[in-house]
Amino acid sequence: MLKKIIRVFFNRLSAVIYVLLFLFFAFNACRKNPFITDEAAVQFTATIVAHVDDRASGTTWEEADKIGVFMFESGKKLQSNTIVNQVYNQVFTFYGDRFKSKANTYLPAQAVDFIAYYPHGTITDDQYAVDVIDQSNPAALDLMYANNAKAVVMGETNIPLSFERQLSQVYIKLMFTNGEKSQYDELEVMMPNVYTQGGFDLAKGKLTVNSTSKKAIKGNVTDNNDGTVTIGFTLLPGEKLSDKKIQFLTQHGDRFTWKLPKVPVLGKGKRYFYEAHIDNGSAGDGIVLSQPFLEIPKMESLNKGEVFIQHFLPDDQKRRNYAMLYDKTKKMAYWVAYPMHKSYLGNAKRTDSWQYDPEISSAFQPSLFKGFGSSAGYDRGHQLPSADRNFSTAQNKTTFYFSNITAQVSRLNQGIWANLETKVRTWTAQCDTMYVVTGAMPTTSTNPAIDYILDNNKADIAKPKYYFKALAMKKGSNYYTIAYKMDNEVPSSTKFEAYQMTVNELEQITGFTFFPDLKATQKESIDAKIWK
Q1: What's residue 375's pLDDT?
Q2: Would you say residue 383 has pLDDT above 90?
Q3: How confident is the model over 349-375, as a mean pLDDT?
Q4: Which residue among 71, 342, 401, 482 is least packed, with the fewest CB closer than 10 Å?
Q5: Which helix (H) or strand (E) segment is 214 a member of?
């Protein structure tokens, strides 16, 4: 009897052990593969055809790549009433060697077609929004489309998809000599005036470009670890790039422009390769010292304490706001350069959001939260006016950075200087683009001594002796220029016209070269009809 009891006990114990072992292995198997799919569930084997990029080559995908899949009645158009089993933009993730879905999808009794795209995103009315303004992650811009899975019937659970790229790619290999590359570790490269947005119709497999979306975009810079860098741009097909000037800006303020050679109209899914080089810090292969933007004055080299600062719009980081040449010892900007266009102007209210410039240590900026309270008669004068950036509240706030502020005589600031600023906005509405350089100089050719004024912390900041404004108006393909200079004192005239001069004359006074991409003849005269 005892032997029987012991035998039954061990039999039951063995059964329990078998169950526990089964659960252990089953649990660990589940942990290794998060996509436990029924054998009959739909899976996709996807290939990338024709064109290769750095992220995916041939049939190579990265684990966790996601595609969006649509299953609809075979032979019908993709639309809401033809979708089968609610498979509309369903996510399939690459795992192992196939794309699988956590929510199993099964083929119906009827034949179906499939459309798929990469990378997965939000779909509105069968439209995939394309926006290439942010080039920092090329894989996220690599739009691919598959529409080859037709009349799939029950039993075909491993379905092949053939993806084709829909956008274009331009690569520029930039080479340096004599170890010069170390000076360009924070290189910024801009492609000016290209289409940035569009919509891809998944039902038609067609891309439509937004004709009003032209902007400058910053390329993706990759260190090749061989003394060269590659700048990549993902662009919308159909773009015309022939003779377009690519703009290079280094961390030291060096600027280069390189004109693309004759380039065919960009084709869908195609890649284009070019080479350029910089020798011993000077330009080669058609690269010339130039400006990243027309409004920025020429800077051969910066003195100790001087820094070049480029601000982009806080609500559109790829679109320029303003740039400046700032002196950290004098705690003021010599000039602030910015474009003016109707897209910068709106109805946002003045914020009075006085604050330090986030691009400069506060130790090198004046503290002006309370204005020039100890020095009556001086205003916190904007170089970039508050009213020139009122499209949004966020944009307006950037005009109140202390780096943009100087000690300006109140009756000048609130009088004819303000009238001139208003007139610039009027002229802006009458042209394509207005390029503006506003400056403040603490010395003159006859008086090199610097006067100081106290900030809120009783620290000295330089006080300007005079202000200037250089303007370049673009109308069609023509440019027109004019300049103004006013001493930082109560003005003797009530009309700003009394202080006008040519840009060339202002260059002689200040020592700066304004609008260096314009010809000298374009800066030597004033067209009275334009500047009336």
Answers
A1: 65
A2: yes
A3: 91
A4: 342
A5: strand 214-218
- Count structural domains, the chain: 3
Place of tokens 């795209």: 117
DSSP 264-278: PPPPTT-EEEEEEEE
For 134-167, b where at least 16 C-beta lie within 10 A, e where not — what string? Answer: ebeebeebbbbbbbbbeebeeeebebebbbbbbb
Burial class (CB in 10 A: 0-12, 13-18, 19+), 74: middle
Give the full edge-to-edge strand order of the sheet including 228-235: 220-223, 228-235, 168-176, 271-279, 282-283
- Count of all residues that appear for the chain in the document: 532
Among 335-344, 371-380, 447-456, which stretch is predicted with the lowest mean pLDDT? 371-380
Question: Which stretches within 108-262 are classed as H helix?
Answer: 138-141
Range of the domain at 123: 43-165
Residue 328 token pair: 């950290």
Rounded alpha-carbon distances, angstroms, from residue 319 to 191, 196, 308, 463? 12, 12, 17, 31
Instruction: Considering only the C-alpha atoms of the chain, give the largest distance between any 2 of them, rounded to a whole number of Å.
Output: 125
- Same domain flag for 494 and 449: yes
Q: Is the pLDDT of residue 416 over 80?
A: yes
pLDDT at position 56: 37
Q: Are residues 154 and 267 in the same domain?
A: no
- Give the tokens for residue 127: 């439209």
pLDDT in tens, 107-149: 999 999 999 999 999 999 999 999 999 999 998 999 999 999 9
The DSSP call for residue 217 is: E
Q: What is the CATH number of the domain that holds 146?
A: 2.60.40.2620
Residue with tokens 């840009």: 503
Query: Cis peptide before 119, with omega less than 30 degrees from 0?
Result: yes
pLDDT band at 283 (very low <50, low <70, confident <90, very high): very low
CB 290 within 8 A of CB 300: no
Alpha-carbon span 420 to 439, nearest angstrom? 14
Q: Where are the beta strands (DSSP E) in 349-404?
A: 378-382
68 phi/psi in degrees, rounded to 5: -105, 135
pTM for the model stands at 0.53
| Pairing state between β 127-131 and 220-223 | unpaired
* Residue 276 backbone class (left: φ over 0; alpha: ψ -120 to 50; beta: rest): beta
Residue 205 in contact with residue 221, Cβ under 8 Å? no
Model pLDDT, residue 11: 56
Q: Quickly list DSSP for 432-475.
A: SEEEEEEEEES--SS--PPEEEE-TTS-EEEE-SEEEEEEEEEE
